[in-house]
Amino acid sequence: MAYPNLQCIKTKDRSVYCSSFICRNHVEGKSWVTAVMLHYSIKASDLKTTFEQQDAPEGAIIYPN
């Protein structure tokens, strides 16, 4: 997938976080990833992957809500 889409991250413990808004480009996506990591105290070493998607995965934590 590519932008514009929802920005999502998955942590090593399989938690999934997804943006509540469409990120238009890499800069917006990166800004969202930084904000969600700070808000939930996620360390870079805890990340498994970042990805873009049209719909939030089931069970994802939506940020900001």
Write the layout of secondary structure elements.
Blueprint (H helix, E strand, L loop, with lengths): L4 E7 L4 E8 L2 H14 L7 E7 L7 E3 L2
Parallel strand pairs: 2-4
Antiparallel strand pairs: 1-2, 1-3
Briefly say what this structure is.
22% of the residues lie in helices and 38% in strands. The protein is of the alpha+beta class and 65 residues long. The protein has a four-stranded mixed sheet with strand order 3-1-2-4, covered by helices on one side.
Q: What this model shows, in words?
A:
By secondary structure, the chain is of the alpha+beta class. It is built from 1 helix and 4 strands. It has a 4-stranded mixed sheet with strand order 3-1-2-4, with helices on one face. Strand 1 and strand 2 form a beta hairpin. It is globular and about 25 Å long. The protein starts with a strand and ends with a strand. The relative contact order is 0.35. The model has no long low-confidence stretch (mean pLDDT 96).
Based on DSSP secondary structure assignment, what is the total number of beta strands?
A: 4
Q: What's the SSE pattern?
A: EEHEE
Please bin the fraction of helical residues: 10-25%
Query: In one word, what is the shape?
Result: globular
Radius of gyration, rounded?
Answer: 11 Å
Q: What is the terminal-to-terminal distance?
A: 23 Å
**What's the story with the biggest beta sheet?**
4 strands, mixed
Q: Which keywords apply here?
A:
1 helix; 4 strands
